[in-house]
Amino acid sequence: MARSSGKVALIAGITGQDGAYLARFLLGKGYVVHGTSRDAALARLDGLIALGICDKVALHSMSPTDFQSVAQVIEGVGPDEIYNLSGQSSVSLSFTQPAETLTGIALGTLNMLETLRRQRRQVRFYNAGSSECFGDTGTHAASEQTAFRPKSPYGVAKAAAISLVTNYRESYGLFACSGLLFNHESPLRPSRFVTRKVTAAAARIGTGSRERLALGNLAIRRDWGWAPDYVEAMWRMLQCGQPDDFVVASGVAHSLEEFVATAFAEVGLNWRDYVDYDSSLTRSSDIMHSLGDPSKAAEVLHWRSSVKLSEIVARMVRAEREGADKV
Predict the structure, then answer these.
(1) 279 is catalytic
(2) Which one from 21, 31, 126, 154 is the annotated catalytic residue?
(3) Active site residue 284
(4) Which of 63, 81, 83, 132 is flagged as catalytic?
């Protein structure tokens, strides 16, 4: 699978969870790594700092929704590979900022594809899709052939971006891939996400905090994986002979209640003594069951999710208690 080192990679959205882990992974492969943020001078670099790589990557200011901005950065860097991880990543926030979500994700992807279409040199392009495109899968695992039925503005935006990638691949011969990634966690996950909210609260309560943790529907089920594993799948997609789209998942779904119970057990507590139900944290459009079928990724990319939920949660809680994100 491996190609020679010394390649140049550009990561749009390098300051996020996936961007930071991907940057570390590519540096380990011998890549020269460039990354973008809307304003590099004001970007929060916590993840890159935590992983000890902040001084090893070159940062550029780029607004994905501004074609000129996108073109200038891509032409200036001259990358061999581009990883499009930009755009706001919160499903809940997409309900209050639907226009910004759709514009940032769909138009941002279009501007990168259009820049690559106009170039003479071949650049390999990865686009971050999402399991949110599938909506509720019931008891069935979603594969690359499963129809999109998104239930949030975020899912709609991601579905549009994936369709654009497919269109440009088929119409113009671009080496462009989309990864349909199911939920993947780490200590670098932003605190607004429920998984980080749970592990942070469990760690604080485990050290004596008297707070209560308010959560919505604990019956929802998600296919959770380990973020550092999933960024390797992104890279593997761009090492293939032909561009294609892949579901990236563990293939196992767990309830949020299981996640919460595991987090509190890690600090020796029974979650039922510290968690309250808050109906305001639920939505009628919430996806109840999300499960992915990663068999194509296993067969073609030789990739499999390697960290089980219990260990994912344990690592996140330990990082909270130790005050470190270096995992």
Answers:
(1) no
(2) 154
(3) no
(4) 132
**What was the pLDDT predicted at 2?**
43
Q: What global pTM score does this model have?
A: 0.94
Q: Which residues pair with 32 in a beta bridge?
A: 8
Residue that the structure tokens 């990864």 belong to = 179
Respond yes or no: is residue 154 known to be catalytic. Answer: yes
Q: What is the pLDDT of residues 209-241, one digit of tens each?
A: 999 999 999 999 999 999 999 999 999 999 999
pLDDT score recorded for residue 327: 57
CB count in 10 Å sphere of residue 322: 12
CA angle 45, 237, 123 (to 5 degrees): 75
Q: Measure the N-to-C terminal CA separation of the chain; round to a whole number of Å.
A: 25
Average pLDDT, the chain: 94
Active-site residue (options: 89, 130, 178, 290): 130
